[in-house]
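Our preliminary data section would be incomplete without showing what the modeling component actually yields. Below, a chain of 225 amino acids is followed by its predicted structure, encoded as tokens that our downstream tools consume directly.
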Amino acid sequence: MNLRKRLGCLHAHYTNIEYIENALAPFNIELVHFVDPGLMARLISDQNFYEVNAQQKVKEQIEWIAQSNIDAILITCTNYIAILQEDQLSFSAPIYKLDEPFFDSICNIQQPQTLLFTNSATVEGTMERLKNYAATNKKSINIEVVVLNNTFDLIMHGRKKEYNQEVARMLEQLINDDKIISVAQLSMVEAAQHVDAKTGSSITNPLTTFVTSIVKELDLEENIL
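Predicted structure:
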């Protein structure tokens, strides 16, 4: 029987905790959460906060987590992933990036597809990483980016129900336009799953692809009740 694994999770917002907890609840794993919305807020609002400062902050966060008796680290924020410089880290614990299994899934879709965001601040970093991933793996992608503006503030202010309603509304509109759709952010997963169940569609999301990958990577067993 496998020993219980400990996964340290770095989030840019506390709302991401629930998604990871629910998704990994069936498995023999202990989750330790670390949340810092301040770095993302400063990156957006402070023009004098340079990339090198952000890189140093993420490095400090990751090294702090690594010292917390964990077996692996998960980063759920695409911008944190983009900022991270792994060659400067001083530990050997594996780092899992929520977006990489998601990118792999997207790159295996041959048809034109739509990638939906609600947070415009994550678009540039996500798309740069996706294009680099596709190029490294010799994949060709045809992506249309759609940003649902004036929506992300809802989740940031705790108005989750309204946020999910807005995301679901846009997803149903895109489905009616006969588009292949993926949602780029963890905060959008609940709405995507709701629309999947309602319409029988198949919307790719970063949580489902991550769980499939992490279960295999860490050789996780299901909890026996």
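The CA atoms of residues 163 and 213 lie 28 Å apart. Residues 160-176 form the longest helix (17 residues). Preliminary results of this kind motivate Aim 1 of the renewal.
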